[in-house]
Design a protein that fits this description.
The chain is 39% helix and 15% strand. It is α/β, with parallel strands linked by helices. The chain has a single domain, classed as Alpha/Beta hydrolase fold, catalytic domain (Rossmann fold, 3-Layer(aba) Sandwich). 53% of the residues are buried.
């Protein structure tokens, strides 16, 4: 049986040729568990029930008939300031089984001067639970159709976290391969393996535990995403959101073999075409050093005191770094992304 490196931030140890997929995610429950005991020494993360009052719910239908949900914040086109009109749109893609509202700190922070979008991928958040399509290729196509349905114009900064890192790389790879247009002019990858250096360790028991003790396993996974304490209501809401994704679909999302070189090459191809920011925790420090040295257009940022959901644990620092990165995104004119059949 081929070993695969799974896409979460978690862990089992691959043999011989390795594949990036869930191992980086699967290792979270085990590899970060030790961080839980030290939480009390850190400031609490402001949390509570998911409040998305600053964002509006939007919907669109994919080409295969699945109704997907996303959040939108920021001034409307008719009322945008001059600065906002020239500012890039920020489009956020969450990780494995996570909802769009996990980006709420970014939705609130950037809405003053940017149009901000956050996707609920198929089977996650408020999006429809589709019978199929839980593959990199389909979810990458969903990202493209989302940008079309939301009428995104150049420039867009695409921000992917965890599994969203791989789906964002797949989307841009497929755009290049097909010759299609895209409004994306910069890419931000948040805390997942990108196929360089040593493969991250993972937990060989994860899938078995997910099948036999799902709630306990998902709860442990959510706990391990944070290095700082979070309010119980926030944590519980994330667990319930994660459990909404059907078990089979959640496993399908993590069992998609890709050679590690695929993600490395996809990243470097993106870096040749646009600015890239790689934000990561110590788990991926070696990879950050490698890609930062390899490409001048790849900026890197280590968040040493944050957990996997670093944009929650270190929201202020992450938002400040993203602001700096976005300021240098060129607003060059280009064709809008080709409509692939997405509906309003």
């Amino acid at each position: 049986m081929r070993s695969i490196e799974e896409p979460l931030g978690c862990a089992w140890r691959p043999r011989r040729r390795t594949f990036v997929g869930l191992t980086s995610l699967i290792g979270l429950g085990g590899a970060l568990a030790g961080a839980l005991g030290s939480r009390r020494t850190l400031a609490a993360v402001p949390a509570g029930p998911p409040d998305t009052s600053t964002a509006a719910s939007r919907w669109f239908t994919t080409s295969d008939g699945v109704r997907l949900h996303y959040l939108e914040a920021g001034p409307a086109d008719a009322t945008r300031t001059t600065r906002a009109a020239a500012a890039p749109t920020l489009a956020f893609v969450p990780g494995w089984t996570m909802p769009a509202w996990i980006w709420r700190a970014q939705l609130a922070h950037f809405a003053t001067h940017h149009r901000v979008l956050a996707l609920d991928p198929r089977g996650q958040g408020e999006s429809a639970v589709a019978p199929d399509g839980y593959t990199y290729a389909q979810r990458a196509a969903d990202i493209g159709q989302w940008l079309v349905a939301a009428r995104c114009e150049v420039p867009v900064v695409l921000v992917g976290w965890s599994l969203g890192v791989l789906e964002s790389l797949q989307y841009l790879h497929d755009v290049r391969a097909s010759g299609a247009a895209t409004p994306v002019r910069a890419l931000v990858l948040v805390d997942n393996s990108v196929g360089v250096g040593d493969p991250p360790a993972s937990d060989p028991t994860f899938f078995k535990r997910l099948r036999t003790r799902r709630r306990e396993t998902v709860s442990g996974f959510v706990n391990a995403m944070f290095k700082r304490p979070v309010e119980p209501a926030w944590r519980d809401a994330l667990v319930e959101a994660a459990l909404r994704t059907p078990l089979a679909a959640s496993i399908d999302l993590l069992r998609q073999p890709r050679p590690r070189e695929f993600w490395r090459d996809a990243l470097y191809a993106c870096a040749a075409a646009m600015p890239v920011l790689y934000a990561y925790t110590p788990r991926f420090a070696q990879q950050g050093q490698i890609v930062g040295a390899r490409h001048a257009s790849i900026e890197t940022q280590l968040y040493a005191d944050a957990g996997h959901a670093l944009f929650v644990d270190a929201a202020a620092a992450f938002n400040e770094r993203l602001e700096q990165f976005v300021r240098h995104v060129p607003a060059a004119a280009a064709a809008a992304v080709t409509d692939t059949g997405a509906g309003r």
